[in-house]
Amino acid sequence: MSKVYFSTWNGEFINNINKPEDQWEESAYNLPVQYDAHRESKAFIGWDGVAVFNADVDVIRLATEYAAQYQVYSEACGRCAPGRWGGRILYDMLDKIARGEGDISDLDHLKEISKSMQITSKCEIGKTVPNPILDLMTHFEDEFMACINDKKPSKHYDAEINYIAKITAPCTDACPAHVDIPGYIEGVRDLRFDDSLMATRQTMPLAHTCGRVCPHPCEDACRRTNLDEPISIMELKRLGADYETDHGFGFFHPEEQKPKLDKKVAVIGAGPAGLTTAYYLALEGIDVDVYEELPVLGGEVAVGVPEYRMPIDKYNKDIECVKDLGVNFIVNTKVTADMMRQFEKDYDAVMVATGTRISKKVYADNERAEIKGYWGAIDFLDKVNLFEKYGYTIDKADQDENLLTTDYVDLTGKTVVCVGGGFTSMDVVRCSIRANAEKVYMIYRRDERTIINNTTYEEYHEAVEEGVEFLFHSAVAEIKDENDILKSLIVDKFELVPDPNGGRAQLVKIEGASYEIKADYLIPAVSQSADLKLLPEEWEIEMTSWATIKTNGKDYMTSRKGIFASGDCEYGPMTIVNAVGQAKRAASVIARYVQTGEVTLTDDEIMEDHLRKLRVYDKKEKITGWLPGLPREVSVKLDVDDRKYNNKEVNLGFTQEEALSEADRCMRCYYIAMTAV
């Protein structure tokens, strides 16, 4: 709810003109009434309407400045005449009226041009810019007419008012890394894969990775869904990275690296959050040392995500892209509290990006780590992937502990039960199939739909194809062993019972329905926790109730000045793209902090946060002006018999023809939002 003077946002009509402020009707939307901690907003204007927060706003100048923002954009784009020339006419005529030099005929011309742009512009930015301008001309006609009739400038035409604009899109807003998705898709459409990749790397350095293993929340906010099916956004992303790699080009960085600043930052952890932090700090001319406990770089993507999903040679290209900027990596180094105390003295800032690498329990009776066959998901995936990707073998002690007879994970003849419902558990069961397990089960407390929401439809479908058996509405109640060797599991069955008060349905155990499964391995993959013993106790860094490092979720500085945190160790287990999004923002903050000592956000970042609260995508929107029924392209996948017992990449990606066809489905849904402060 937002207190507004006037609003037409998203179809609402609130008119508090001439009403006492204590009687104002509130907006139903999270409009940016308070721009930041120090400044209130005067007005907000965008693709879906306008909101005025006080009676003193100069609505004519507001419309003029909004048109000016579009003119800058349309000149840079230049892809359609209605947008390019219409934008120029909108601004020129609105500014003419605002200067006190307008005529009544100018209003009619403005309305005519606006209608033409709404109908004929090539992209949504041209179609939607006229929307709030027409609203202002309609509902504040008296103010426009006063400027015209009295030949006087608008009331604050020469005042110093800050008009802060941001270009967004529904998909970009939904992406945790705020990638310029229409931009990189346009690069594909134009066969400018270098431009496509540079558009991605503006906010996402791991293009190979997030073009393959991203859960693509952007596709849930794709406006094309309202017409037929979402664009295959994730798969189009990998094309630029594959083009760069396959043709042996140098790295297409989004901008030229800045001169050295004589500042240095320590990053703890070389996973997605650590790599992202290092990349964007290095672009700013800041020296970065990255400390990694493992013998290899890449964090959980390297040792957790299997080769068939994320080929290590492709991920290594993402890592080399970071190295290309001069980032220094130190492996086989577990950072301690004493080292952190020294880092605080030696570095201008420290980023903690250590992830969450401790597997949590399933909380069954007789759950004991000393039972052989009870194997945490993180350690299991480490052993599999360090061998498959890097050739690291398993020593004799670990072989004995995990009932192995080889120096790699061979599960021939074994029954594996994994408990979970996310990406980690999917990786466990599909790796178990490839390790030649005789039977593989996944036990999950909820249903098929939820597990698909937690992961992706493709991931679930491919696991089923490969022979994984899913046991839904189930939970391990008891672990049975003989002489500390796992033998079987008692599994309880549950049913969903509706809440009579209309709340969320509850899982209730079905009495008498429990059953026993013989099992050689139980691999818990329900979640992970962070090992934060590296944080000195005397620092008293504030923690969340989930035992992760607490920040405000905006600038990512901890309760100790100069110590930042991002990724899983800050939020808890999350997706790669979430970790990248956090780290990109944190790197931006750190780059300013090491120079000024202040923690600040840019206007672009503040607007980004406001738009995320407001939500750019409207799933109820009725799409017009586009041809429906264009089928979504589906990339070729390895046949189940060709992939089941090896680590070949399953998703082969688009051909050029498929990529162009899919890119052509994009409606280029850019929008402009602007706040007057």
Write the layout of secondary structure elements.
Layout: E1 2-3, E2 6-7, E3 14-15, E4 26-27, E5 43-46, E6 49-52, H1 59-77, H2 81-98, H3 104-120, H4 124-128, H5 130-139, H6 141-150, E7 163-168, H7 170-174, H8 181-189, H9 193-201, H10 207-210, H11 233-246, E8 264-268, H12 272-283, E9 287-291, H13 299-303, H14 312-323, E10 328-330, H15 337-346, E11 349-352, E12 358-359, H16 377-390, H17 396-401, E13 415-420, H18 423-434, E14 439-443, H19 448-454, H20 457-466, E15 469-471, E16 474-482, E17 485-497, E18 506-509, E19 515-518, E20 521-525, E21 528-529, E22 563-565, H21 568-571, H22 576-596, H23 603-614, H24 640-643, H25 656-664, E23 671-676
Parallel strand pairs: 8-9, 8-11, 9-10, 11-22, 13-14, 13-20, 14-15
Antiparallel strand pairs: 1-4, 2-3, 2-6, 5-6, 5-23, 7-23, 12-21, 16-17, 17-18, 17-19
